[in-house]
Specification:
mainly alpha; 2 domains
């Protein structure tokens, strides 16, 4: 029962290569389905407006030209509308923006145009077989980050827009300043201060890993080493 809240919550922690640990609030399949339906409604309304405009101008350009322009408009809306919107700064189609969603990389960075292209063009496989969406739904429910086949191929995830990237580790509590036991030059003092300032973005394991390299200075390892290093950084910043 202790692990039940973690399984039910879509807030997931990811540690990046730099040791920074972020949290992503992954969007579930139900809300993503609503966003997709809203996009279909928007596309349908856009096609209605386009057909009305082309219908009025059809007397001038001819019926065959109007038919070709309708097919072109349908192709652009179905295939390229989500690509351009998701590759934009907001990273979301109109439907996703209404639902408070956006598409990003697992690192929290915006997706590129090529990633948007891949994830949306593979949608033709996600809706199979026979436009039932079974392939995509199976992938969503069987992956930890609710990724359909297009997401897996492009390396993308869909998250809640207002909770996409949050540092996982909080900063250490205020410490009593502790003077370093040896004299430090300006470069060494700056390195210790930088450690304290950047540690808020690191996991506890990453802090300890870096602090262990300074064992000759702190005479400690693990959490104790981190604590002493923070106290020295506090002294260097506040008491020096």
């Amino acid at each position: 029962m202790n692990g039940l809240p973690e399984k039910l919550d879509t807030l997931q922690s990811i540690e990046l290569a730099e040791g920074v640990e972020i949290r992503l609030r992954i969007a579930g399949p139900i809300l993503r389905m609503w966003a997709w339906l809203l996009d279909l409604i928007f596309i349908g309304l856009a096609m209605m407006v386009i057909s009305m405009v082309l219908g009025i101008t059809g007397y001038l350009v001819g019926g065959q030209v109007v038919g070709g322009m309708m097919k072109l408009a349908w192709f652009l809306l179905i295939w390229w509308y989500p690509v351009f919107f998701e590759a934009s700064r907001r990273g979301a189609t109109i439907g996703k923006r209404i639902c408070g969603l956006r598409v990003i990389q697992p690192s929290g960075a915006p997706i590129s145009f090529s990633q948007a292209l891949v994830r949306n063009f593979i949608r033709v496989i996600d809706i199979m077989p026979w436009f039932s969406g079974l392939f995509g739904l199976t992938s969503l429910l069987s992956t930890r980050r609710f990724q359909r086949l297009g997401d897996l191929a492009a390396g993308t995830v869909v998250v809640y827009e207002r909770n996409d990237v949050v540092p996982e580790s909080v900063g250490p509590p205020p410490l009593q300043p502790q003077r370093p036991v040896v004299a430090l030059n300006a470069e060494e003092a700056l390195a210790i201060i930088t450690f304290r300032e950047r540690s808020v973005f690191w996991s506890d394991a990453r802090r300890a890993e870096i602090a262990d390299h300074l064992q000759p200075l702190t005479d400690s390892t693990g959490v104790a080493g981190v604590t002493k290093l923070m106290a020295m950084a506090h002294w260097l910043q506040e008491k020096r």
